[in-house]
Write a structure and sequence with these properties.
Blueprint lengths: L8 H30 L13 H14 L4 H16 L1
Helix pairs in contact: 2-3
């Protein structure tokens, strides 16, 4: 068995302090990221299970690109908004 007298020297204490800060920083960061991913503000679906906000945005993009005309845009938008109220 190797003899160790407990004297780490200056570099040993510096390394121990840095590793202590890095370890607890990683633990705290993991907890924060986990809590944010499970938070209610990050949920994509409303109570009805539909994500009409993104659907309306995609519909507006298609209208802006000229893929659909105004009558089709308004008809689909009406259907989306009616589905949200139901």
């Amino acid at each position: 068995m190797m003899y160790w007298d407990g004297n780490m020297g200056v570099w040993g204490y510096i390394l121990m302090g840095v590793s202590f800060v890095l370890f607890w920083g990683a633990v705290i960061t993991a907890i924060i990221l986990f809590s944010r991913s499970m938070g209610a503000g990050n949920r994509r679906y409303d109570a009805g299970g539909h994500d009409t906000g993104i659907a309306e945005h995609l519909l507006a993009e298609r209208f802006a690109r000229g893929e659909i005309d105004e009558s089709e845009y308004t008809a689909r938008l009406t259907v989306l908004r009616r589905g949200r109220r139901a």
